[in-house]
Design goal:
- The protein is an alpha+beta fold.
- It has 22 helices and 28 strands.
- The radius of gyration is 28 Å and the shape is globular.
- The strands form seven sheets. A seven-stranded mixed sheet has the order 3-5-1-12-9-10-11, with helices on both faces. Strands 7-15-14-13-8 form a five-stranded mixed sheet. Strands 18-26-27-28 form a four-stranded mixed sheet, with helices on both faces.
- The structure holds pterin cytosine dinucleotide.
- The site of pterin cytosine dinucleotide (MCN) has 35 residues, from helix 17, helix 18 and helix 20.
């Protein structure tokens, strides 16, 4: 035998058995990161690279009367200064959204032109107006100061509700009353009937405020001018290299084959790096124009003015219940602030994604929702971890708490009475999606047990002894992970496919090189994707290379967002592995001189059924590349294959999170005391990494609930949260040790792994659970409602207002 010795092969198989799906393999990528060997875009040392600095609008809304760049062009070491007029002169068109939804009457959403460098009018503070390129960063910064922009200020509006007023400043000629879209789902007639029959009706007004991502690595772009093959190379901190290739080439009127996009290591993405930004196309065009490499790295304050932001919903929701507290009908009206322009998926998040989840885990027979997307003078909104699902969870859970209070039931009891029962899957919701799997009551019961829900009264009493108020909150959710299928998304207006691609090359020594269309920016794909292959092919993780993030190496890709990588990309990988086994079986039958149908593949070996006689996959791979003893008459040499997997439906993860908080009524400070999460993500690939994903998400959810807020001055439209001094992020000291568990009630029924996404679970549930807990703590004091973030000032004020009104 050539290649691995039989002893090596056996030991490789036992390693593989210990590293496959379900095992807590440590992240193989971490030693590189922990020893400073990560390769991030701003680490690239490209000889002769010029530095770019953007001149950004200092007004929320203004006409550009003139831009004088003469002084900047004459500044020392400046290579070039460009404005929107220069891009227009080159015939560069607007940036396009990747999802264009339609209103119920078929009217397409308003998609006003958005130019990468503003032309004529600026519509938010931070919008790029000009780019300065110089030999050094300081030369570019100094010259940028010399660009004289003559602005004619226009009235601005930053609040979605105010933007709909008839006398509000208008942002775009094509969007009357600043309306981008009106999206409707559900059966209004059935909902009316539900309300008519109701014994109780509760209603609520909610603000799901604007927040933003804050990855460790700010966005960065470096573009190399055309190489010998006339090809441009664009490095970007993106989660979606192939999308960026398509969108940038469309905009620059060039062939996709002439652009290579590389997203090397990326230090966090959180959804907001999964979209096209003006900087990507401007830097690409500038590198073409100057013939020189150009690099740009966002400063942190620039990130606050230009990274896509998220949430920003104003919602009125009503719930009809019968005498016993069973939900009869739900009516939701949401105004979603899309910002100054429609971003890549900016219209889809509050429409197709958010509204589809308004059934949640509950058996509500009739649901109607109307969501209006509104333009304002703010940074565009788009996906941020959770993307539409935290908003849906927040509406449902806040309503459930309100209903519980109205009916004198506990938070647990109102939910228990309304959960979709086990055994009814597949369950068709009245709002669109059909859930294929899950046992919500089981997950619910486990979460309450883990949280010791019944013991909370004692803990409340103990807190009171310490002059603190304690409360408990519950959030149940369903998450639509892995947008799918492509055809359905297309019907809803998507301009992209949602399949994923996996290509496996078995090397002659039995190791494997895997190229995936997903992108790893913190999720641990190098480990978990390898584990999938380990389980399928019996190859140890250490012998598998996972390659992502390069459009010239990966055959094609949709990228990583919407917790799709394992459910969609991992499934593509499993299918590709099966193709390797299929071909391997034919090679093995030749090597073993048996018929194809007699060959079985198990634990990394092809064996003749009913015998011990077999060959390892490594031996088969070797034979495929040195085809001396090989069925050349019916098979090509080599052992590699590709699978493109387009899922039949979303993978519906679900979970129940329970938390306890304490409130210091003297200061209004909220502390998170306990947090328990039980998630059903189907088959868990790596419990340790999946747990880490939940923990990270909960921390971000805590950030939204208690600390973070992107604020604008209502008069001037200026950004008020422009640094971490004004935008508070959670720190380790804010958080208790989390209890997290997975309940694999039913695997996803339509993908080969049975896996559902878990990357966003914590972010979806935590805000609702935390706000529910704070309101539970303060309800006895007369505080019935609070909007996030629950800052000390806001909580303190609510307590004071309630106590003065009850006095
Ligand atoms: N996993 C698992 N079993 C499952 C599902 C997932 O073990 N059934 C594990 C896998 O190890 C996988 C990880 O969880 O590596 C996340 O998988 P998945 O749920 O498929 O999500 P994606 O890989 O597609 O990641 C996207 C998701 C999103 S949408 C955001 S936003 C997000 C997130 O994941 N951004 C992150 N997690 C992040 N984590 C880090 N560190 N940084 C980010 O920017």
């Amino acid at each position: 035998m050539v290649g691995l010795s039989p002893e090596d092969a056996v030991s490789a198989l036992s390693v593989a058995a210990a590293e496959g799906i379900g095992t807590p393999v440590k992240r193989v990528e971490d030693p590189r990161f922990l020893t400073g060997q990560g390769r991030f875009v701003s680490d690239l040392h490209i000889p002769g690279a010029r530095h770019a600095v953007f001149v950004r609008s200092s007004y929320a809304h203004a006409r550009l009367r003139a831009i004088d760049v003469a002084a900047a062009r004459g500044s020392p070491n400046v290579v070039a200064v460009f404005t929107g007029a220069d891009m227009a002169g080159d015939g560069i068109g607007p940036m396009r959204a990747m999802w264009a939804i339609k209103s119920p009457d078929g009217t397409p959403m308003a998609e006003p032109p958005r130019f990468a460098l503003a032309r004529d009018i600026v519509r938010h503070v931070g919008e790029p107006v000009a780019i300065v390129i110089a030999d050094t960063l300081t030369a570019a910064q100094d010259a940028a100061e010399l660009v004289a922009v003559d602005y004619e200020p226009l009235p601005s509006v930053t609040d979605g509700l105010l933007a709909m007023a008839p006398d509000a400043p208008q942002l775009h000629a094509c969007a009357s009353t600043n309306t981008c879209f009106r999206w409707v789902r559900g059966d209004a007639g059935r909902v009316e009937a539900g309300f008519a029959a109701a014994a109780h009706v509760v209603e609520i007004d909610l603000i799901n405020h604007r927040i933003g991502g804050a990855a460790i690595e700010p966005r960065a772009v470096t573009v190399l001018p055309p190489n010998d093959f006339d090809k441009l190379t664009l490095y970007s901190t993106t989660q979606v290299p192939h999308h960026i290739r398509r969108l940038v080439t469309e905009q620059l009127n060039m062939s996709e084959a002439k652009l290579r996009v590389i997203a090397p290591d990326v230090g966090g993405g959180f959804g907001y790096k999964g979209k096209l930004y003006p900087e990507e196309s401007v830097i690409a065009w500038a590198a073409l124009k100057t013939g020189q490499p150009v690099r740009w790295v966002a400063s942190r304050s620039e990130s606050f003015l230009s990274d896509y932001q998220a949430r920003d919903h104003a919602t009125h929701a009503e719930l009809a219940l019968d005498e016993e507290g069973h939900f009869l009908a739900l009516r939701v009206r949401t105004i979603a602030n899309v910002g100054a322009y429609v971003s890549t998926f900016g219209a889809a998040i509050p429409s197709a994604i958010y509204t589809a989840l308004l059934a949640g885990v509950y058996r509500t027979p009739a649901i109607f929702v109307e969501c209006t997307g509104v333009f304002t003078n703010t940074v565009p909104t788009d996906a941020y971890r959770g993307a539409g699902r935290p908003e849906a969870c927040y509406v449902l859970e806040r309503l459930a708490d309100r209903a519980a209070a109205a009916l004198g039931l506990s938070a647990a009891e109102i939910r228990r009475r309304n959960l979709i029962p086990s055994g009814v899957m597949p369950y068709q919701t009245p709002i669109g999606p059909s859930y294929d799997s899950g046992d919500f009551p089981k997950v619910f019961a486990r979460a309450l047990e883990l949280a010791d829900y019944d013991g909370v009264e004692k803990r409340k009493e103990a807190a009171e002894q310490r002059a603190r108020r304690r409360g408990i909150g519950i959030a149940c959710f369903v998450e639509s992970s892995g947008v799918a299928p492509s055809g359905f998304a297309g019907m809803l207006g998507a301009r992209a496919g949602f399949f994923e691609t996996a290509s496996i090359t078995m090397e002659p020594d039995g190791s494997a090189r895997v190229r995936l269309g997903t992108h790893n920016h913190g999720q641990g794909h190098a480990t978990t994707m390898a584990q999938i292959l380990t389980s399928r092919l019996g190859i140890p993780v250490s012998q598998i290379e996972i390659v992502e993030g390069d459009t010239d190496i990966v055959p094609y890709g949709t990228g990583t967002f919407g917790s799709r990588s394992i459910a969609v990309g991992g499934s593509a990988l499993a299918v590709a592995a099966d193709k390797i086994i299929q071909k391997g079986r034919l090679i093995a039958s030749h090597l073993l001189e048996a018929t194809d149908s007699d060959i079985q593949f198990k634990d990394g070996r092809f064996v003749v059924a009913g015998t011990n006689h077999g060959v390892t996959l490594a031996e088969v791979a070797r034979a495929a590349y040195i085809p001396h003893h090989y069925p050349l008459d019916r098979l090509e040499p080599g052992l590699q294959d590709i699978a493109v997997y387009d899922p039949k439906a979303f993978a519906f993860s679900n979970g129940v999170h329970v938390c306890e908080v304490e409130v210091d009524c003297e200061t209004g400070v909220v502390t998170l005391e306990r947090y328990c999460a039980v998630d059903d993500v189907g088959t868990v690939i790596n419990p340790m990494i999946a747990t880490g994903q939940v923990h990270g998400g909960v921390a971000q959810g805590f950030g939204q609930a208690v600390l973070e807020h992107i604020a604008y001055d209502p008069q001037s439209g200026q950004a008020l949260s422009g640094s971490f001094m004004d935008y508070a992020l959670p720190r380790a000291s804010h958080l208790p040790m989390f209890k997290s568990a997975f309940e694999e009630t039913q695997p996803c029924s339509h993908n080969p792994l049975g896996a559902k996404g878990c990357g966003e679970a914590g972010t979806i549930a935590a805000p609702a659970a935390i706000v529910g807990a704070v309101l539970d703590a303060l309800r006895p004091l007369g505080v019935a409602d609070l909007d996030m973030p629950l800052t000390p000032a806001r909580v303190w004020q609510a307590i004071r207002t309630a106590s003065s009104s009850t006095r």
